[in-house]
Amino acid sequence: MHSSTIELSGSALRNNLRFLRKLLGPEVAISSVVKGNAYGHSIEHFVPLAEDCGIGHFSVFSADEALRVLESRTRPDTRICIMGYIDDAELEWAVGNGIEFWVFDCMRLSAAERASERIGKPARVHLELETGMNRLGLQGAQLDRAIETLATSPGAFELCGVCTHFAGAESVQNHLRIRNQIEAFWEGHERISRRLGAAVRHTACSAAALRYAETRMDMVRIGIAQYGFWPSRETRMHFQLERDPDQSGAIRDPLRRVMRWKSLVMNVKTVGPGQFVGYGTTYLTTRTEKVAAVPVGYHHGFARNLSNLGHVLVHGRRAQVVGLVNMNMFLVDVTDIPSVDRGDEVVIIGKQNRSQITVSSFSDLTRNLNYEVLVSLPESIPRVVVA
Ligand SMILES: *Cc1c(COP(=O)(O)O)cnc(C)c1O
User: Fold this and answer.
1) How would you classify the pairing of strands 29-33 and 57-60?
2) Whose CA is nearest to atom 10 of ligand 1?
3) Residues 6+ apart with CB under 8 A from 196
4) pLDDT by residue for the chain (387 residues), tens digit each?
5) Which of 83, 203, 345, 373 is the most exposed place for a label (fewest CB within 10 A)?
6) Which residues line ligand 1 (CB under 6 A)?
């Protein structure tokens, strides 16, 4: 048996997608972003759940992730798109299986053309425009060449989309840069559509979709928000303030966490006053304390810098981590929680009774982003789908 379990809530996902669809309106499609093992939720468990909620398009970073989506999908018409890395050798596989992929240089385009000739199927490509992030993307003469390649070998390609990615839509600091990117996108798009006709336009991640309505276009690529997390505290504040300008507090968080990470009490012991607890001398008892051991450590993604800082839930109440987080274990103070016993449930992320530990409270403490905490949850922890 594994020492902890991650539960995935189907109703929370349904709730989040309902909220997003209402916000986006019926004209905007959603591509569900499931890179990074579906942000720690597990591709194999998350993909069928999302399909049940009506998702028909998934975006991943690389070909190995695309293969996992391909093997987990329950519908043959579910589409898969690789936004990042594909080895030239994997292109044939991608073309053969109808996997879509982003093109950000002409070398990949020629390789895709060759793969298409060998396989006898068109390569399904999305042209990525460089609009100011200066990471990946076509621009200038390279873009012109790519357009010409597509225009002159129509049988080799199916143009599935024109896209770009914003350099930090979750922070108002980047406002001007985002605006300039939107403008640059439309210029590039104009050059493409003049020669090649219409294609699905998609630029927005969660933060852009929530904050800049004009970035929604034909499709949005939603990662973090579908899992029930805000891209940043600022995005959430902005959203709440728009709807509740006098801050009456009437607006509840429309997102629900899909994930609940739980373990159990492995052992409880009573420690007298004036004793150090765990390795070294970071925690000294000030009274007679009850200390519970939880069999989860930094090996499992419970960050070491939560030592003496993090909290978990036991019997619906918060219990603080005492001492250093070990590789496979940490200790919590349960002195003030009555009758804690071996085998009692411990919630590390999520709800227990009326209390909740959010990943953001977790990650504020460790100064990590939601994203980083989520994807650092190892694949070896079992996932189970619950209602
Ligand atoms: C990860 C990613 C997204 C999704 O971002 P979220 O902030 O999680 O919604 C969208 N587009 C690209 C290119 C990405 O890499």
Assistant:
1) parallel
2) 205
3) 147, 150, 151, 159
4) 899 999 999 999 999 999 999 999 999 999 999 999 999 999 999 999 999 999 999 999 999 999 999 999 999 999 999 999 999 889 999 999 999 999 999 999 999 999 999 999 999 999 999 999 999 999 999 999 999 999 999 899 999 999 999 998 888 889 999 999 999 999 999 999 999 999 999 999 999 999 999 999 999 999 999 999 899 888 888 888 888 777 776 668 899 999 999 999 999 999 999 999 999 999 999 999 999 999 999 999 998 989 999 999 999 999 999 999 999 999 999 999 999 999 999 999 999 998 988 776 666 666 566 888 899 999 999 999 999
5) 345
6) 33, 35, 83, 165, 205-207, 221-225, 231
Q: What's the pTM?
A: 0.94
Residues 212-223 as b or e (16 or more Cβ within 10 Å = b): beebbbebbbbb
Beta carbons of 124 and 200 less than 8 angstroms apart: no
Q: Which atom of ligand 1 is nearest to the CA of 36?
A: 1
Measured from the Cβ of residue 118, the count of other Cβ atoms closer than 10 Å reads: 12
Is 35 one of the catalytic residues?
A: yes
Q: Which member of 22, 35, 39, 283 is catalytic?
A: 35
State the Cα–Cα distance between residues 324 and 310, nearest whole angstrom: 10
199 Cα to the center of ligand 1, angstroms: 20
Q: Which protein residue has the closest C-alpha to ligand 1 atom 8? A: 223
The yes-or-no answer on residue 262 being catalytic is: no
Six token digits for residue 69? 């989506």
* Alpha carbon of 204 to ligand 1 centroid (Å): 8
Question: Cβ atoms within 10 A of the Cβ of 357, count?
Answer: 21
Q: Kindly report the CA angle at 252 between 248 and 256, in degrees rounded to 5?
A: 165
- What is residue 226's DSSP assignment? G
Q: Are 377 and 316 a contacting pair, CB within 8 Å?
A: no
